[in-house]
Amino acid sequence: MAFVSLTANETYNPYKSQSIISKVEYPYSKLFYKYEHKPKQSFSARWVRVYYDYYRKWYDHLQYYFAGFSNDPYVVLHAHTKNPHDFVSADVYYCHYHELPLLVTLQSTTSKRYYARSDFDPDIKGYKHKNLDTLFPFNDEKTLLPILIDENDKVDKILTFQVDKRGYGSYNGDKIELTRYTSYPDSEKHFESLIEKLQTNGFFCFRHRPFYTYRSLSSYFLFNYEMIMGFDRKPIDEIQGQKYNVAVYWSDRVKEPLLLEFNKGGHTYNNDLLNIYFVIRRVHEGFYFEKLETTTKEIKEFLTWQHGTIYRILSHNNHQIMIEFLKKLESIMIYKIYLLLNKITTYTKNDVTTSIKNSGYQASQPFKYQISPAQPDNITVYFKKDCVKLLSPDFEYLEQVIKIKPRPGANYILDRDTFQLILFVPKAGYRNIFSELLLYEYYDGPFKKVENIYHAYYDSPNIKFHVYFYKGKYETPLLFCHNGRAYVPESKQNYYNWVKVQNVEECLCSENPQILDELKRLSRSILGIVPPKPVHKPSHTQVKKTPKIHHVTIKFDISKTETMSYDSNKVQVSSRKLFDQCHMFNYYVHTPIVSDFKSILFQSSVHKKTISFNGISANDFQSLYVYFNKYFPNKPILAKIQTKRGEKYYRNLVQNTQTYTIQEDTLIKNNSELLVKLIEDSDKYNKRLTFQINKKEGTYSSINISTHKSKHGYTKYTHSLTTSDSYKGFLLYNNVQLLGRVDGRTVTIEEIQDQVYDSVEVYYFDIDKDLPLLINLKQSESNFLYSNKKDEFGAYWHKDNVKNFNEENIKNKLDFLYYMLKKSIVIEIDSTYDSSYQMKLIENMQADDISTRIQYSRSKTLRSESKITVSYSNIINEKMQHSDFRYVTHVIELSSVSEIDKKEIGGLRFFMTKLGVDELSEIKFYNALRGNSPRENDRELFYYRSDSPKTTIYIYFYIEDPRALLFCYMNKSFKRISEQNNIEWVYNGDIKCY
Q1: Which of 75, 83, 98, 569 could form a disulfide with 123 if both were Cys (CB 3.0 to 4.6 A apart)?
Q2: Where are the alpha helices (DSSP H) in 222-359?
Q3: Does residue 978 sit within a domain?
Q4: Residue 453, H or E segment
Q5: How far is CA 921 from the centre of its chain?
Q6: Could you give phi then psi for residue 526, rounded to 5 degrees?
Q7: Is residue 564 part of a domain?
Q8: pLDDT tens track for 778-793
Q9: pTM above 0.70?
């Protein structure tokens, strides 16, 4: 088996007796399956040929020896070295709903690599030779799912809707339009009321529908890359393979969609169209969808208000029923954890259930006060007195601890849930009847309700809450603190309304004396108790005794990396904190709990070292900060000691000898200088390299920067190793690890950290050396590209691809990236007489027609108040007479534009604002037509940057007809797609503009 036939299956086996082909369902999405091609024995080969179809012409006894001699097109994958690969399997992946192979994996005893259709299709047709090592590696089948989705999107056979997708523009290979309703088009004015109600109540809606060209294709609907499943964990056949569109309703407070609305004719809310609704359900194993019927429990109570179809029920009372229904779904989807703040011993889920039931909450609001699977079986309570007792004997506190474990069956993509904390205290005069606390924040004086306190499910294995009391008054808690946010009762009269305490960042009173001040105030105002001052009683004997002298020694341990007290409760370690300058580093703060210590020692128990810090005495010591690289949590890098006279820094914490003294580094004066040393020492001790891609010259950390200036107006900065040794490396941009997007969340791109790179290339336009556009991570013969992008949430980096990595293609890619990151000058093409108008800039983020209007409304005039000049002229024919045609020029000149404004300019966009349409519309240009409709992939963007000279745009008209006939810019002309279509224009050839 020195070849792979991509179309081989159980009935067509070109390997004959050499290999077995088996059909297997892909375990991570029922949209896909695969054929496993397994040789009966592993074989060694220095090359493998990949065919679509392979037809043998040899006798059976010669088949193995002549494998690969078919005349059909193929690509040859050969080994990088002379040593052959020992192949054990080749798997070919398909979608259930068409017959095109999407991906093939080649697995040997030493590696697993995949070859995607977008690569092997042109390679096979071109009879290419390719190095096996240039194929992308993968660890397991889970990691192939996004790749399979992406490859399937590029096939124009079916539509695959992803109902959990949010954003603007299009997806599924530009076949499906994605629109968030923040406004409404004129054709759907009846939608206005619902949009306003959604926005007011924290909900929003995305509509998914195919572009016109693809509306004949069958639709298949996915959630989290999996077919939409019912309770039986099977795809819901009723909605698959149809020609439906879908509108998806979301909540700001839930990470999953709440309601799916399917419609055969598009989302028009027309009574003669059939709408089918499905609601999401959460179970122990994950999620499923249930069809909404009039018998569904959440909809039953509305039947007395409106009878008929589900659509008529939800749209009743100007869509108010829809809002109430969404609130119910939201309440069910958010897991809740209930805390009983008066408990001083561990309590169970049954205790919580009984308390809520006895208090009448489940009877009055059953949907809100359900006991969810997130409620822990036990909430452990640690009663502690020492922390506060040292400051005041009158107050006590306890820790309530929830031990969090990942949900069984948690999906690896949606690996985070949130839950809502709900706090209960005993009702005044009762021990077993509880009232819920309502939490508020101060904003400019008045209260603002804190709707929910949320916590990420997997943020840490233990979640701690601190509750403070006056001694013995456990039924009346005075202060609750979680994650650096403290809340106290507003007053005695409004005890169940708790407000946030300002300027509290730590929940332990030893780290924040303000907590003690609040407790003293509350004991007076809430309990009417004035804590007594200490009374010194006279001695009953006249015999003077010599006082005992206690010599307390504290031993600090720099290797402690969890919240705890140690050294017989003499030292408290804070929770892990991120270093503000760079989140690749974190630190722990060690603070003495006792105040009467006379000497201090330092050690690293993990490394069995005894350490002295030169210049540190017990009288001067306040706290110890120990810094780590987050990827090496057991290797302390650097220490900062806070003394009464300031900060002192110490490096080289772990040395070869068992006992040693560390000298102060007096060159570190601030956090910026501290970061430089953290990077330097982390690289040294952990044998790593840190690529700082914002640097543009010189040598740093065994990395040299070389510069290549392109004739196309961009510069490539290459960060290369100055050593022949291979080290794994980290990537930082402006001291921040590269950030990406996952389900709308900003996350560190971990896959590119702690990897071996031959070099890192960073591309900038020469006119803007502060904005990196493209990063190329080079490994052996592979390029891993990341593009700088932005969306409504801010900037991020996105894994990308550039075909044929040459200068011209790089230039085209950089043009596009710069355009999308910057803004465009607005050209009002229906300004048609001698005049001028203000030069304005508009954001270039991908958007639909509705959000384009919002962007236009937010466009801003330049600081310099520069203007675009409009001039009117008749076209003169060869006989020097005026013709019936005229043209209008829009002249842009940047000489008067400020340098700050110039840096914001990345392109031109064209709008009709006055004539020819009922309201503002953007003109879209395309470089070609495919069929009768343009495709987003063929969209023509007009790049224009601050280094561009004075430029002129020509628009041609017939006599006084306000509808433009021809558009010309940079000697490229465009015409309207049709006489009736004023908005979409297509390329009409190169001409000389005049």
Answers
A1: 75
A2: 297-300, 310-314, 316-333, 349-358
A3: yes
A4: strand 453-456
A5: 31
A6: -95, -45
A7: yes
A8: 987 788 899 999 887 7
A9: no
